Structures are given as C-alpha cells and as structure tokens.
Amino acid sequence: MKLLTLLLLLLVGVLIAKPVFFGFRAQKPADYAGTEPAFILEKHLSGPIVAEGIVYGPLGKVTNSFVAQMQGAWADGKGTLAEDFTYSNGASQTRNWTLTKQDGNRFTATAPDVVGEAEGVVSGSTVRLIYKIILPEASGGYTLSATDWMYLAEDGVILNKSEMRMWGIKVAELVATMRPAQTAD
Questions:
Q1: What is the number of alpha carbons within 13 Å of residue 104 lying toward its C-beta?
Q2: Between 20 and 30 A from 91 (CA), which of 6, 20, 140, 169?
C-alpha cells in the first residue's frame, strides 16, 4: 500500500511539475534573445492588422473561433492597439490597449478589462505579455491570469499563443495568427 501511495504521489508531482518546468510556462524571454527577425513593437503592432484564431476550453476542445480587426498607432514611445473581435458564436468584443515603452526591452500595457498593468518584454523575435484579465459577464466575469507569447515569423506574420489560468489551473488557451491587413489601393 505504501508503494502505491508513493507512486501516486510521484505521478501527481510529475503532472504538476511538467508544465512548470517543461511546457509553455517554462519558456523565458532570454530563451529567444538574439533570434531573428527582431520584433519591433512600433513596426509590427502598427497600422491595420487582421487576426484569426481559435479558443480551446479547459478540456482541450475548441470552444470558439474568431476574427479580429486591429489598428495600431505609435507616437513618442506610446502605442494604442484597438481590437474588434467577432466570434463564431455570434458574440463581439472590443479591447483598446495602451502600450508604454519602458527602459530596455520592457513595456507596460493597460486595457479596460485588464487588472492594473500588463508587463511586457520584447526579446529577439518574441514578445511576452503577462496580465490579469476580467472575462465578460456572459463568460462568467471571472478574473484569469493570462500569459501571451507572440512569435514573429520571417514574412511578418505574428503567431500568438495565450494561456489563461484560474487558481493556477489552465482553463483556456488561444492560438491566433496576426498579419498586416490588406488595404485597398
């Protein structure tokens, strides 16, 4: 019986340690230092951008998809990123980010549904943003801890992966592409 208990405890320990030390949460901005192409906030989060993505629920199944029209603008180290989401379930949502560059490769970001300031770091071809977000009432109104990673590809497309947690447990995941929107000539 003691051996079975020990094995069960070891299994639980591995299940807890795996995502912290070997998964999405284990990556650090320093892991991407020097990678190319360099992610430049003022360049890559500027102008019209279109995003398309999917949202996974806590059991790993797709619960929704979306298309977002975004508009970024920068002046004097401050940026705005307006996002208009249309979801496959018919819902829509807007979010207006204000980004402020800090010393070095750091920046902060605020939005009406974000608690306090999000903390961002640019490193090589990546951006990491950590924040707490309040879900709309229709989605329960919960406050989730979010980690966004944006990876810049050679062609200027940004691949975004986000993980949302409540009480340390992953409850949602988002995967999206962001690319400059085609404008009419």
A1: 8
A2: 169
